[in-house]
Structure formats: C-alpha cells, structure tokens
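Lecture notes, unit on protein representations.

Consider one protein chain, 154 amino acids long.
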Amino acid sequence: MPDSLVTLGWREWVVLPGLGIPRLRAKVDSGARSSSLHTDAQWRFTEAGAPWVGFRLTHGKARGLVVEAQAPVHDERDVIDSGGRRERRVFLRTPLRLAGCEREIEINLTNRGAMLFPMLLGRTAIAGLFTIDPASSFLHGRPPRPPSSADTAA
C-alpha cells in the first residue's frame, strides 16, 4: 500500500489501455461496490475454448467516439443497480490508468446510455490507493488526445 492515498474528485478522466480506450469520463462512486462501463452492444464468442465478450462503446461530445473492444470473460453475476433492479452482467479484468497510477480492476458491462458518465468507478477499484474529495472534479486533468491517422500520415 502506498504511503499516502491519491485524492480524486467525484469525477475524473480515466484510461483503459487494455481495451483501447484512451480517455473516458468516470463518476467516482464509493457507494457502488463494482465499476461499470457503458456498452451500446455486446456479443459473446469463444476464443481457444474460453468465453469472451466483444462490445461497442459510443461516447464523447455528441457521442462521436466509437470504440469496439473484446476481452476474456472474468465472471458473470447479478448486480443490483441504483434503482433496485437486478441484472446479470459480464465482468472483465483490465488495467485502469488514473492520476499517474495503474492497476488492474474488475469492470462489469451494462448500458449506461441514460447516465451522464459512461463509466462508474466503484470502491473496489479505488480501495487502498485513492481517496475522494467530493467537492472537487477532474483533479488530474484530461489525458491527451491520441494521435489520429490524419495526424500521423506522412
């Protein structure tokens, strides 16, 4: 455990490099046990005999950024949402980069299209490394925009 905890605001920019997501707004929520990631669509398949999930995420200004990713299924279990509804969700494990720190976290996939933030960062992802200042937002800035193919064309 680090000597001191890194302070987060109630909302922060995160990077999910293992899923090819270079930056995403997340609501930091110590009241939620698990972390959730918005998906527009999900599909299941088998890779080398193991269950995998593919998904599409649309986010950004006017939902203009589309990312498709895939990952092995870590688990599948029921989650009770903030409205009290029980839903069976797929869980994956993937690296999270936030505030100069990187750690592997567990994320469940669900449709958060009606929510303001495409990701909810729950307490199991922040435990032991981060603390929250509920009066602050985006304390660690916005990760740089990844270069587009137009930027790198010769």
